[in-house]
């Protein structure tokens, strides 16, 4: 027995030693030279810095030496880090393409990732392409093995320059300490890694190797040591802006221009904590939402396009309780009673945001702290008396305060525990909400096994306008997941429970609660080239869903998939899915007690993409879905193409279609003369969707570009038959025709169009300072013209009422330190 225990201990030691590979380390060299960021390393100090080389591939041949040589040096002084990289590549093999900032495209690039706390969880990434285009990102939860961070909308102010030579190109960085957050130790050691992309070889390589079998990216960085006596300078940045908005409608023509002004502020409270605030926010230039015709019982989730709410919010999003689009949304609480003989004739599109601020940072002990606050103003709707025609204003949304507080503690082995609280407080006669969640993420020493847990509790106080009384609703959620996260073979099993009263939608996003889910997923990944593939993976997933209250079976699914990249860098995927038993939908009928039963179904699909390095790239996808008992089919596909024209211009076109035949879904409810429910009507319908998205760009320099995006979404819904769903969960024929008795027109058919143009000119005339000119056009139609073909429908849409805005916006970056130094010199 003793020998067996010794053998087990030795095996565990070997496994741990293998898992924790020796990481590369170097000592930083301090300089007093004035380093000019020009891509030419002619300062004497560079000779003193050690050369960092021997890069290792991450793809396509993990663990093998890079096919190309790379040499990196690093210096530092009281103000910044300086990095010089010599990246070997023949001039005619360098992919030197111009793109907008934060868009790498298919260019060669070089970058650095820095983790000052060396916890393997949080850090920054700074990259530059051959053409000098900058990309920067924040990392949380260890980051992704594909380099790009969790927050790509973060824009730091740093300097870089590049030069192209016959057999290599160079990149030179100046990274001010104001960009980073670090502790106050006299001598510091930071996690650091360098990487380069050779697009010609389609090779990613790193100074400290990245093992694809190990989950995470920052945790596989090397180290820079002996950073002495560095201090974070006063981080006080001002971003004042002015903007002018010109608006025009096809009916009324131009309206008076709107002049706006305001300011964003960034203030370093201490070495590690930063305050971000926006005063008198202006979001007039944000990109248009991808509107769709929503036939489901659930809310559509839209992307956040407002920069303040996308930049530096990774800590607030960790628990999944923060959906920033709630801030500024409207018509959630009517605070005054509307009489039965009154109708709402106009309502606001958004609530004016008065101000917003956030404080984020991390202590020396690895405790991340985040505080977010925003206040939105009152909104009003106009109601009209149906009998007298008199109108009045009714408060739709009171003054509202939004808060998020996060405490995120780093633990050993890239583990963490996080507490998140969201709170919404509204003015008179409106709901208040509070949600608290706890995340636990535990990894073993070898980073092979992971245990994750999450628990959240929601509490809502609601005010009843009719009764004048306040009621409360509470609910909870928990999720447990156990995973193997390392090696070719990986798996995870999870259990998720959400009570029927769990509600986070005052500041979060949840399509529906009231569920109990069990999932199991198994996968096998071949990371190294084998046969015709550079890499490939298989996966198999089982999902069992129940309703939480009352406890009833909902659905069982089995799905499988294959993904692979060929050696010519084409990629392919195949997938299959089946629900082998009858499933039960408790929400489609929109009426409590009515359950919509759906027979068995299956689907198969695939995707094929050509080599992304080529000037012309094609990607296509197709899925076929079938429910035999209803003769219901769903065909979905898309084809997208990208054409590069020289080094400055690019055109992308994506066509996406779906054709759902004999789909069955909710239509309406019928009541008798006493107001009692008689029927819940289900329609048998054909739904055809077509989306055309055309994007193009022309980049003048690495600081100036023009982008254009056109999206046309077309959805046609035609009803073929109507059924009644009974309280016994059966579907049976009904005499309802869905025809207007007066006009003879179908009541429920839809011909829905949404047409948007977003065109933007952007010029970064100084670091952190920019001028943007944005033109947006929006056209929307919703009618019964389901008989129109594509061209007639497009013409009909384009000639409909439209709305244009032209926004001219200038932001100027002001660094307090530079102003102070100017006054000192004078």
- Please compute the radius of gyration using only Cα atoms: 29 Å
Residue fraction in strands: over 45%
Q: Mean pLDDT, as a whole number?
A: 90
As a percent range, the share of helical residues equals under 10%
Give the class from helix and strand content and strand pairing.
Answer: mainly beta
Q: Which regions contain 5 or more consecutive residues with pLDDT less than 50?
A: 1-20
The outline comes out as globular
Number of strands: 45
Supply the number of helical segments: 5
Distance between the termini: 82 Å
Largest sheet: 24 strands, antiparallel, barrel
Give a brief description.
By secondary structure, the chain is mainly β. It contains 5 helices and 45 strands.
Which structural traits does this protein have?
5% helix, globular, disordered N terminus
Notes on the structure:
The protein is globular, with a radius of gyration of 29 Å. By secondary structure, it is mainly beta. 29% of the residues are buried. The protein has a 24-stranded antiparallel barrel. Strand 4 and strand 5 form a beta hairpin. The chain starts with a helix and ends with a helix. The chain contains five helices and 45 strands.
């Amino acid at each position: 027995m003793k020998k067996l225990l010794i053998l087990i201990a030795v095996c565990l030691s070997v496994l741990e030693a293998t898992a924790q590979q020796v990481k590369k380390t170097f000592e930083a060299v301090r300089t007093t030279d004035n380093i000019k960021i020009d891509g030419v390393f002619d300062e004497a100090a560079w000779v003193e810095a050690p050369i960092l080389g021997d890069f290792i591939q991450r793809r396509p041949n993990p663990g093998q030496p890079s096919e190309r040589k790379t040499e990196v040096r690093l210096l530092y002084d009281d103000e910044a880090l300086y990095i010089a990289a010599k990246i070997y590549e023949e001039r005619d093999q360098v992919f030197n393409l111009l793109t907008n900032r934060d868009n790498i495209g298919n260019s060669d690039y070089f970058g650095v990732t820095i983790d000052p706390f060396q916890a393997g969880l949080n850090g920054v990434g700074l990259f530059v392409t051959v053409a000098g285009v900058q990309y920067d990102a924040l990392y949380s939860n260890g980051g992704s093995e594909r380099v790009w961070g969790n927050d790509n909308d973060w824009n730091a102010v740093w300097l870089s320059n590049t030069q192209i030579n016959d057999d290599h190109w160079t990149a030179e960085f100046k990274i001010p300490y104001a960009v980073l957050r670090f502790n106050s130790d006299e001598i510091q050691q930071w996690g650091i890694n360098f990487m380069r992309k050779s697009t010609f070889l389609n090779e990613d390589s790193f100074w400290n190797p990245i093992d694809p079998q190990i989950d995470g990216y920052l945790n596989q960085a090397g180290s820079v040591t002996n950073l002495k006596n560095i201090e974070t300078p006063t981080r006080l940045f001002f971003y004042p802006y002015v903007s002018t908005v010109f608006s025009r409608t096809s009916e009324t023509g131009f309206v008076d221009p709107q002049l706006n002004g305001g300011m964003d502020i960034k203030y370093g409270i201490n070495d590690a904590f930063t305050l971000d605030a926006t005063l008198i926010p202006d979001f007039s230039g944000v990109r248009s939402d991808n509107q769709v015709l929503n036939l489901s019982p659930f809310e559509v989730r839209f992307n956040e396009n407002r920069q303040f709410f996308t930049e530096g919010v990774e800590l607030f999003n960790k628990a999944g309780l923060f959906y920033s689009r709630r801030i500024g949304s409207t018509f959630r609480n009517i605070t005054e009673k509307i009489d039965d003989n009154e109708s709402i004739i106009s309502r606001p599109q958004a609530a004016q945001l008065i101000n917003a601020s956030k404080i984020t940072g991390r202590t020396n002990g690895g405790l991340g702290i985040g505080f977010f606050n925003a206040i939105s103003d009152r909104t009003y709707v106009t109601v009209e008396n149906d009998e007298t025609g008199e109108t009045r204003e009714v408060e739709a949304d009171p003054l509202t305060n939004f808060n998020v507080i996060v405490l995120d503690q780093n633990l050993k082995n890239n583990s963490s525990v996080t507490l998140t609280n969201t709170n919404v407080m509204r003015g008179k006669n409106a709901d208040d909400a509070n949600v608290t969640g706890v995340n636990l993420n535990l990894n073993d020493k070898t980073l092979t096994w992971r245990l994750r847990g999450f628990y959240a509790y929601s509490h809502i106080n609601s005010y009843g306008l009719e009764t004048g009384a306040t009621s409360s609703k509470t609910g909870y959620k928990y999720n447990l997941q156990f995973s193997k996260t390392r090696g070719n073979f990986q798996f995870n099993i999870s259990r998720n429970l959400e009570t029927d009263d769990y509600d986070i939608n005052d500041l979060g996003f949840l399509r529906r609660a009231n569920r109990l889910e069990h999932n199991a997923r198994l996968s096998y990944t071949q990371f190294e080239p084998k046969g015709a593939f550079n890499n490939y993976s298989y996966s198999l997933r089982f999902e069992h869903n129940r309703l939480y209250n009352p406890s009833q079976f909902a659905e069982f699914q089995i799905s499988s998939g294959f993904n692979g990249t060929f050696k010519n860098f084409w990629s392919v995927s195949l997938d299959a899915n089946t629900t082998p038993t009858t499933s039960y939908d408790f929400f489609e009928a929109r009426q409590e007690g009515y359950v919509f039963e759906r027979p068995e179904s299956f689907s198969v699909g695939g995707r094929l993409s050509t080599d992304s390095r080529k000037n012309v790239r094609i990607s296509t996808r197709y899925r076929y879905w079938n429910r035999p008992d209803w003769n219901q089919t769903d065909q979905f596909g898309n084809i997208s193409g990208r054409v590069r024209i020289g080094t400055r211009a690019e055109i992308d076109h994506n066509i996406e279609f779906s054709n759902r035949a004999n789909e069955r879904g909710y239509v309406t409810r019928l009541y008798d003369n006493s107001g009692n429910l008689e029927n819940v009507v289900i329609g048998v319908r054909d739904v055809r969707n077509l989306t055309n998205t055309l994007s193009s760009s022309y980049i003048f320099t690495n600081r100036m570009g023009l982008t254009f995006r056109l999206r046309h979404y077309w959805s046609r819904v035609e009803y073929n038959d109507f059924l009644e769903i009974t309280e016994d969960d059966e579907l049976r024929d009904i005499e309802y025709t869905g025809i207007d008795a007066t006009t003879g027109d179908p009541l429920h058919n839809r011909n829905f169009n949404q047409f948007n143009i977003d065109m933007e000119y952007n010029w970064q005339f100084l670091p952190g300072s920019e001028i943007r000119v944005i033109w947006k056009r929006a056209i929307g139609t919703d009618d019964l013209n389901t008989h129109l073909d594509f061209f007639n429908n497009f013409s009909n849409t384009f000639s409909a009422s439209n709305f244009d805005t032209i926004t001219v916006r200038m932001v100027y970056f002001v660094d307090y330190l530079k102003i102070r130094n100017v006054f000192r010199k004078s």
